[in-house]
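Structure ticket #2291
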Amino acid sequence: MKLLLRWALLAASLLLVAHLYAGVEVLGYGSALVAALVLGLFNAMVRPVLILLTLPVTMLTLGLFIFVINALLFWAAASILEGLHVTGFGAALVGSVLYSLCALVIDAAMEALFNREAR
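Resolution: structure written out below.
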């Protein structure tokens, strides 16, 4: 149940990112659900490999290169999905930062909600 709620909220956050920033476009909630799933799969499977491969650059930039990795994954997801469009790398960078901030808020709220219910 928690996973499905998080997925639905992350899809809604993609719609929010598209509403707040003109460089990201999502065609509808169904497209946002698919995009949130693909972004989740990329973050679970591809991101750790990219972080490991770019560890020297990440250390040299004091971790700021992770923003580039996130933007590349956001851009890659937009390139393979028809319902998610990103105008360029800069838009992918801004979109990935906004999406990450939304995910941070969602995770904190869900943690507080589900921990409160467990008591």
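Closing remark: The longest helix spans residues 89-118.
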